[in-house]
Amino acid sequence: VASATMSPAKGSKIAAAPKSVELASPVLINNQVKDLSPQRRAENEYRRATTLMQQAKTAEAIDALEQALLLDPQHSAARHTLVALLLDSKRPDDAVRKMQEGLNLDPNQPALAMILARQQVEKGDLRPAVETLQRSLPYGVDRPEYLAFLAALLQRQGNHKEAIERYISALRKAPQSGVWWMGMGISLQAENRMKEAQEAFSRAKGSNTLSAELLAFVEQKLNQLQQ
User: Fold this and answer.
1) What pLDDT score was predicted for residue 32?
2) Rounded CA gap, 91 and 103, in Å?
């Protein structure tokens, strides 16, 4: 009588019966999701860029920062670092584009707005520079250097009335700046507010912070106003 149990054919292999399938740990899944998130990948690219910068591999660092911003356009540190590298690499147009992109996403970056405005001024784009500072002004009202920079550009535009307002706000926060007093004096004189202009130039002279050239200019203005 043949045995009920059949022996396997010689050389054949019997696959082991699968054990119950274990579900992946929720913690593991969550960690994997985090690792693959665009923000985490952007941060990794930013860190890689800083390492490349330490190795003086500027081109590779720029590429890594570009990738970081593609993954997370609001990665502020990556954008600021990229702008600095582009400017150092004599690529101002690319830097301007990156700054404009960043400010369009989030105007609450007054430091970036000031850098962009300076680049625009250097290119002779005075009106766009003023617009850049005006757009981020609500976030720069507590920065006297921001207000004074905007005042100087408004003055160059011939908008002396608003320039005076910005100089006043800046000087309230930093009253010892002789250059700003001088700037306000120029705009006050342009507005035919001669007595106030004389006071502003006097404050500029009394600050003892002006260079010899600027001091001579202020003294010349005072002599004109006192005649």
Assistant:
1) 54
2) 19
pLDDT digits (tens, 9 = 90+) for 78-137: 999 999 999 999 999 999 999 999 999 999 999 999 999 999 999 999 999 999 999 999
Predicted confidence band of residue 25 (pLDDT cuts 50, 70, 90): low
Name the token pair of 199.
């006071």
Model confidence pTM above 0.90: no
Query: End-to-end distance of the chain based on CA atoms, in angstroms?
Result: 137
Closest CA to 150 of 169, 163, 135: 163
pLDDT, tens digit (0-9, with 9 covering 90-100), for 158-193: 999 999 999 999 999 999 999 999 999 999 999 999
Buried b (16+ CB within 10 A) or exposed e, 93-108: ebbbebbeebbeeebe
**Spatial contact of 71 and 41, defined as CB atoms under 8 Å apart:** yes
CB 38 within 8 A of CB 72: yes
Cα–Cα nearest to 134, from 155, 113, 165: 113
